[in-house]
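ESCALATION

Customer reports they have been waiting on this structure for their group meeting. Please prioritize. Original submission:
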Amino acid sequence: MSEKPAVVLVHGFWGGAAHWSKVVVELHRRGFTDLHAVENPLTSLADDAERTRKMVRQVDGPVLLVGHSYGGAVITEAGDLPNVAGLVYIAAFAPDAGESPGQISQEMPPAAFENIAPDSDGYLWIRQEKFHESFCQDLDADEALVMAVTQKAPLGSTFGDTVTSPAWKKKPVWYQVSGQDRMIHPDNERRMAQRMDPRKTVELDAGHASLASRPGEVTDLIETAANELGTR
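Update from on-call: job pushed to the front of the queue and completed.
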C-alpha cells in the first residue's frame, strides 16, 4: 500500500476546526502525519469552498477530504480539485446540483430545527440552553457547555447556497450516519448516502457531534477510506 494520504478536515455550522480535536489525536496516533483542519468563515458556500480549496492546493500529494455537517456541502463543492482522492462525510450534508442544506432540511426537518434562532445581524445560532440536547446530547455537560458558548454562527443566507457540480459524482465516497441526529434528520442522511453509492456506509447510535462523541469509529471510517485509496 502507498503512503497515507493527507487528511483535510472541514467543520460545519456552529463549530470550528477544534471540533475535530479528538479525531485529530486519534488519526495521529494511527500514523497519519499530514493533517489539516480548515477554519471556514461560514459566510457563504462559495467562500467556504474557496477557503477549503486553498488549503487543499497547499498539499503536495493526494488528499482525503472529510466533512462534518455543513462541511459535507463544502467538500461536495470544493472536492473537484485533481489531488482530492476521496470524500468522507460525517453526519453531513451531501447536496446534489442545485440543492442547498436549507432545502434538504426543510424537506425533512430535524428534531432540533426550532432551537435555531437568528440574531439582528443575520447570523443563526443554536440557543445556548438548547445546545446540549440539540447538537451533542451524547457528550457530557461540560463539553457541551464549551461547544455552546464557543459556537460559530453562520450567516443565515448560507443555508440557501446551492451546490454547482457535486464532487461525489466523480470521487469515491464514504459516509457515516448518526442515527440519533437532531440537527440533520437521520433519514435525510441515509437518503443522501444511498444516492451517492458510497464504498462504505457506517451508522452509529450517536448524535450530530459524532466526531466528538464517537471519535474512534469516525477515525475507523477515515482510515478505511485512506486504506482503500492506497490500494487502488
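Sent to customer with the following note: Strands lie at 6-10, 35-38, 63-68, 84-90, 116-118, 124-126, 173-178, 200-204.
Escalation resolved.
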